[in-house]
Structure formats: C-alpha cells, structure tokens
C-alpha cells in the first residue's frame, strides 16, 4: 500500500509527523497532491479541543489534481492547479500531508502566474468573505454592482477574512468602513477602505455610528469575540441591521440580526465538530458559485493577496508554526508550509 507523510494527532493536544496510507477519492471528490498548505487558528484549536487521535491536521491547501473520482465537476481535469479547504483535524484527511481528497465543487483554479504558496492562503478567507457578503447580507456577487450609496463596516479589517471582504465589497462599489490597529491603517487604505477606526478605542462603535449618520445597517464582524459584539452593534443604526459574524452570538441591540458563517458548511458533508451539521443543497450550490467567482477574480488579477511566511522545513515545522501562532506573533500574514521542504520527501 502506498504511503505518505502527514501531520497527525496523537490525542491529548499532541501531533506528530508520520507515514499513513494515501487516501482514495470517492464520488464528487478528487485526489490532490498537496504542494503547499496554509495554517489557521482553527488548526491548533481543533487539535487541542477535539482531542481525537489519528486525524490529519490542516484545512487549507494548494496543489495538483492527480486522480478523479466519479461525477466530478466538468471543469476539473487531471493536473489542474487548484486550491481549496477541507475539514482537517477531524478525520484521516487533512491539508498537512502529501496528498488529500477534496470536494470537486469547491476547487478554486490557480492561474500559472500564482505560486502554490501564494495560492494556499486564498481559499478560507475568500470563501468566508463570500459567505459574509453574499449569503448573510444577501448582496449580489460583484458581477452585479451594489448600490453605490451603501455602507458596510468590516470589524477586524486586517484579519484574513477582513482582507478579502474589503476587496469584494469595493469591487461591488460599496463604501467600506473598517477597524484595525493604527499599524495597519495604511494597508487597509491601500485596499480601498474609505475610513479606518482604531478598534482599541472604547468609543469606536459610537464614532462609526456618527460617521455614518446613524444609518449603517450592514456589518461584518471578523473577530466575533470579547467586546466586538457590543462595539459592532453600537455602530449600527438604531433601527437595527444585519451582522455577518465568523462566530455565532446574540446582539444586545434590538432589531440587530446576527448571522454566523462557517466555511465547512460549504463542503456538503455532515460533521459534529465544532458543531453538529447536516448538509444542505443550498450551501453546496453556493460553494460552487463562490469557487467559480474566486477563480475568475484570481485569473483577472483583481485581488491583492495577503503576505505569507513560509516555514523552513515543510511539515516538520508545524509544531513551530503552532507555537508562533499561539504566542500571538502572527499579524496580517499567513503561515505556509511548502510540502517538498519536508525532510524525507
């Protein structure tokens, strides 16, 4: 049986690099040779909280299609350069590996002008940004222009989700207000943000409320924890509005509807961590539409990609990458593992 190297859980918040069998694709899935994988906070948090051994870690990747399952999308072919996400750290299929099985309806095509390392940091942020705008806020994709007079608040603009939410909103013609630390103000202005506020100012919500004349009804909360639910609600109109949140919560403000988004919903398969989920046709159809849209944006060179930090020893560097992220050292960059840099490959 052919084997591959992968980062696997051992239980009790432990991981190790070891050899395991190469997975086989089934219906509507493909086998990917992983060229680069990106690290996210959910990777180490799932290892710590799920506490199940023999799962392959990692959820975001870029690579090459090397085997097709049955009934895959007609625009997917062998040797296509693609990127996507999977529900890592919960089964024997994850991104921190030489190979993985991916859902064909969620594959984003990577243009030849983009390296695999750059491509690996695109999917999770872009899919979630699409959910926050085009599912939760019911806005049209930028192939149709938004109302140019519409405002949207992106709380946590320097996050990866914020980075792409800002760009998608600007592509549709919206006026974007964002929050960040002053260190990132200029970066956000370069992305097209019209006004930036310091999220650390306890009156930031009130200031945004005044800046928008009390008429703001659309917000994306890319943080969704600690004080942000209160601050985002403060910024919205007294008549209420809709908040797209990356984590679920209930607003204290009357008539403010909070709709959470989780990219794993788009895969079309059931899971029970971090929550119980039953697949829906609507999510699968949306994922297919979003993957085509993101592919088009990349092909047209219409997206500014976030900075990346490539770790030196491929998968062998994952423990160091986890420690680096846990220590709070990641700031507007994506940690990337180039699989070929792994000793023994």
UniProtKB/TrEMBL annotation:
Transmembrane segments: none annotated. Gene3D superfamilies: Medium-chain alcohol dehydrogenases, catalytic domain, NAD(P)-binding Rossmann-like Domain. Pfam families: ADH_N, ADH_zinc_N. Coiled coil: none annotated. Residues 11-337 form the Enoyl reductase (ER) domain. SMART domains: PKS_ER (SM00829). One of its GO terms (molecular function) is oxidoreductase activity, acting on NAD(P)H. It comes from the Eukaryota. This is GroES-like protein.
